[in-house]
Prior knowledge:
Blueprint: H1 2-23, E1 30-36, E2 42-50, E3 54-58, E4 67-70, E5 74-81, H2 84-108, H3 115-138, E6 142-145, H4 150-155, H5 157-163, E7 180-191, E8 210-221, E9 226-238, E10 247-263, E11 268-285, E12 288-307, E13 312-327, E14 332-348
Antiparallel strand pairs: 1-2, 1-5, 2-3, 3-4, 5-6, 7-8, 7-14, 8-9, 9-10, 10-11, 11-12, 12-13, 13-14
Helix pairs in contact: 1-2, 2-3
Amino acid sequence: MKKISLIGMAICCFLLAGAQENDNKRAAIFKTWIKLNNSPQIVKGVLYEIGDSSIFVSESVSNPTLHEYRFNDIDLMKVRRGNSVKRGVYNGAGIGFVSGIIASFSFVGDASVLTGPLYLMLGMTYGAIGSGVGALAGTIKDRIPIKSSYENFEKYRGNIQDYSYKKEVKDARKRFEHKGYVGFSMGLSVAMDEFKTDVPIDNYRGMKMTGSGATLTAGYRFTDKIGINFMLRTNSYSTHGDNDMPVYWNLDSFTLGPVISFPTDKKYHFDIIPSVGFASAYMYVDNEETYTGEGLAINVTSAFAYNLSKRWVTSFSAGYLSSKQQYKEGGSGLARDIDFKLGLAYKFGKRSL
């Protein structure tokens, strides 16, 4: 029941941030900083409207006195959403708090009366870290290099329209998107069964089926619907029993496979990531490796992702991994687990935006 509650909390936190975004979508205000090629002055204001070959900037929405700047006068635009730092703090704190509670489940699950305070302490710690990361992410501006080129103006028109306070009647079909990305996620993991039976260690009573884990991903998208993804995954499980020395299992894997995406709108997309590779199950006693397994691995991960900006993406994922292990010390086993994780990814490419 605890596991279901924690997973539900993570999903609600993730969807709430997106719902707030959609509720305020029409009222979104983006600030812009424009470097002109014929003046050292940096133009600052609200990106109000997009014309056929120019943009219109106002001092504020309440005072829409418009100033027009043609594409051939613009060298570089920088854009950032209003109150983005505050929004980053709130979103980062919320995601960090839930991530901390999920990650702490395997560590304080048996702490009886101390469980609640420890959950809260770890949640607040992760929340503080998340708010700092969110604040930092909120200071980042998207860069749009016009370079006095109408070709560039048209190439980035769809992106600029997304930032405009006054929405265009005819939406640009094409938008520039970064192709490469790296990401990190962490959360709750659940083992399906013992990774190895008949472990000859005194007081060893088996694995705890609930643990925690982290995943590092890197990939490249060929289109908005297909790409390739590399995943480095590690999940850890403590054990039952009154051992004087710490005993725990790790299930590590690295897999490679395609990313199949189903965009629902400009902000959301659902990903399915089937992949194959290698996995190793390790048993540690007093931080020394006692059993070492290896074998081929099959991993299937699904993720619901939300674009915070042109570069930052947050996600909630569920993954399943299965690997038949052959242990160097003798014997075999089937290592299987599922995990539920909150993640953050950064998109990059050769061009600025």
